[in-house]
Design goal:
Distance between the termini: 45 Å
Radius of gyration: 48 Å
Number of helices: 16
Shape: rod-shaped
Bound molecules: ligand C2E, magnesium ion
Oligomer: single chain
Strand content: 15-25%
Length: 552
């Protein structure tokens, strides 16, 4: 930025910038909080997505296993149906035993008569036959051709809770049934590593008429309650077997996902800390630099480190000095003389330019009184920061001028202030035309004049410039420098001069360094000029000597 170390300067002064640290702390908090909030939100959604995917894959696996079970049961029942035709009771028992002997999933296989009696099963002949007594007996339909899932219950023989799968038999067999241990449905789930559904989570196997066949996780009461009143705080996944006979429902509480959330955070938190740290570092450096420089500037003004150098403005016809441009210099105790290009942009950014300009105008008026007796007609050009006019924030300027004209001993002969305000062409905002116009009008009440500085370098709308009530155009030194180099620049200068003349404005050429440039401009009727050919910007005493030397 400015190339000089502001931190060291702060130490030299032995004081710290007030309010700097409060601002810094606030910034650091913002910088640290923002990535953390983003991280919290992202990792929360990641954790939810992870939990959902996990649940879906468990339910999918459960559905596949159940499909396999139903298909195998269907095969066994169909095969038994064929084998049992014309077999006597004893052989039938053997056939049924053989069918399920090697498959641990099936507890018992048996025959139901069309009247609903159990006559024999893989456990032996039931004599006399007994009515089937597992609870969904009414659910068995002897006319349904496909496999039927009858829900869980107990057979007369096998007294343990079982799921009954039944198939309509042919000819003299009313139907066949298979009893499945309910645990079989959830058995494979036990093998899933880290299966943890949380306090209220569950995987439930339901018949198409909402009977609970088997489940893991929450209690059956809670499962029914949750199925009847689905909660928005739960993540749910539902699938049905291919034959639509069994539905598998998986559910976990959203809060349960927080577990993964914490895990995500433990991975990404260090990254966020690094990002926040880096951001904080850059912000601190930035804020520290501009705050310190701002503070340095304020301190510099308080400790009288600013100076004004006056660059003579010459009447090109008579080659006599008719005024000067006041240019700021900062005599820094460590760095020596600092030119405005280094500190004016910061002063404009922080608003300190207002105080600086106020000080400058007061000093210019003071210096004018020193020169007034011997050089009464000198005008001084003062550069205005564009923000001062664009925002209409000219109260302090008005007050400064007021104070100046209210000192009759200094301005006894005229109530006018002999100041020309320079405003840089490319920095006046056209959108605020009315504000700029009003500001100019107010400041002109004190007899001040206005000049467009660096004219020709901006892209201002010509008609906009015409509407502004200005008195002078200052041709930028860029064009003057190019005069001897190429004819294009010379043509451009000619057209700028032409434009100024047509608008009835006084022309001042900046940066005249050679006699050729001077002659060229004079020959084309440019009234005034400034540049190293005549003089550099000088401290007051030297400027006074320069004026004296002209008189002699
Ligand atoms: P500017 O208003 O266009 O001032 C003219 C600049 O050209 C001055 O530079 C001056 O020293 C330089 N200059 C004059 N004659 C010649 C020459 O023959 N050859 C060359 N190469 N340069 C010449 P300086 O003093 O460094 O000022 C730079 C700019 O800083 C000024 O440009 C002005 O925009 C700004 N500035 C200076 N003082 C103030 C101030 O008090 N307030 C504000 N807002 N801006 C200021
Ligand atoms: Mg200027
Ligand atoms: Mg200029």
């Amino acid at each position: 930025m400015t190339g000089f170390r502001v931190g060291r300067n702060s130490r030299r002064r032995g004081r710290r910038a007030p309010g700097v640290y409060r601002k810094l702390i606030l910034l650091i908090v913002c910088i640290s909080v923002l990535p953390t909030v983003v991280l919290l939100v992202i990792s929360y959604f990641q954790a939810i997505a992870y939990t959902r995917t996990n649940l879906e894959s468990i339910v999918k696996k459960a559905t596949e296993e159940t499909d396999k079970l139903l298909k195998d049961a269907d095969t066994i029942l169909h095969r038994s149906n064929v084998d049992l035709q014309n077999a006597d009771s004893k052989t039938s028992v053997n056939i049924l035993q053989r069918q399920i002997y090697t498959d641990f999933r099936f507890r018992e296989a048996g025959i139901i008569t069309s009247e609903g009696y159990l006559t024999l099963s893989s456990l032996g002949i039931i004599d006399p036959p007994i009515p089937i007594s597992f609870s969904p007996k009414a659910g068995f339909n002897p006319n349904e051709p496909d496999l039927q899932v009858l829900g869980s219950g107990r057979s007369q023989v096998m007294r343990e809770e079982s799921i009954a799968l039944a198939l309509k038999g042919d000819e003299n067999i009313g139907g066949l049934y298979l009893l499945v241990d309910p645990v079989v449905l959830t058995y494979f789930l036990e093998a899933i590593p880290n299966l943890d559904l949380g306090p209220d989570g569950y995987i439930a196997f339901m018949t198409s008429n909402d009977r609970l066949l088997s489940s893991i996780g929450a209690s059956p009461q809670n499962i029914f309650a949750s199925l009847q009143n689905p909660s928005s705080h739960a993540l749910r996944s539902i699938r049905t077997t291919d034959d639509k006979k069994i539905t598998i429902v998986g559910e976990v509480r959203r809060q349960w996902a927080l577990r993964y959330w914490l895990r995500e955070l433990s991975i990404s938190a260090p990254l966020t800390v690094i990002i926040s740290g880096l951001l904080s570092y850059f912000f601190i450096r930035q804020v520290h630099q501009s705050n310190s420089l701002d503070y340095e500037l304020k301190l510099g003004l308080a400790q009288n480190e600013f100076e004004i150098h006056y660059q003579p403005i010459i009447d090109l016809e008579t080659r006599r000095c008719i005024g000067s441009e006041a240019l700021l210099r900062w005599r820094h105790p460590q760095r020596g003389l600092i030119y405005p290009g280094l500190f004016i942009p910061i002063a404009e950014q922080t608003g300190f330019i207002l105080s600086l300009t106020e000080w400058l105008i007061q000093k210019v008026i003071q210096d004018q009184t020193v020169l007034q007796t011997r050089f009464p007609d000198l005008y001084t050009s003062v550069n205005l920061s564009p923000t001062q006019l664009n925002t209409g924030n000219i109260e302090r300027l008005v007050q400064t001028l007021n104070t100046a004209v209210e000192q009759p001993e200094q301005f006894s002969e005229q109530s006018n202030v002999r100041i020309t305000f320079e405003i840089t062409e490319n920095k006046i905002v056209e959108a605020q035309e009315q504000v700029v116009q009003d500001s100019i009008a107010r400041l002109k009440l004190w007899g001040t004049r206005f000049a467009i500085d660096d004219f020709g370098t901006g892209y201002s709308n010509i008609s906009y410039l015409q509407r502004l009530d200005v008195d002078q155009l200052k041709l930028d030194q860029l064009f003057i420098r190019g005069l001897e180099r190429d004819t294009n620049t010379a043509q451009l200068v000619d057209s700028l001069i032409d434009f100024g003349n047509r608008m009835g404005l006084t022309l001042i050429a900046e940066g005249i360094e050679t006699e050729n440039q001077y002659e060229y401009l004079r020959a084309r009727g440019v009234q005034y000029g400034q540049g190293w050919l005549f003089s550099r910007a000088l401290p007051l005493e030297e400027f006074e000597r320069f004026l004296d030397s002209q008189n002699t």
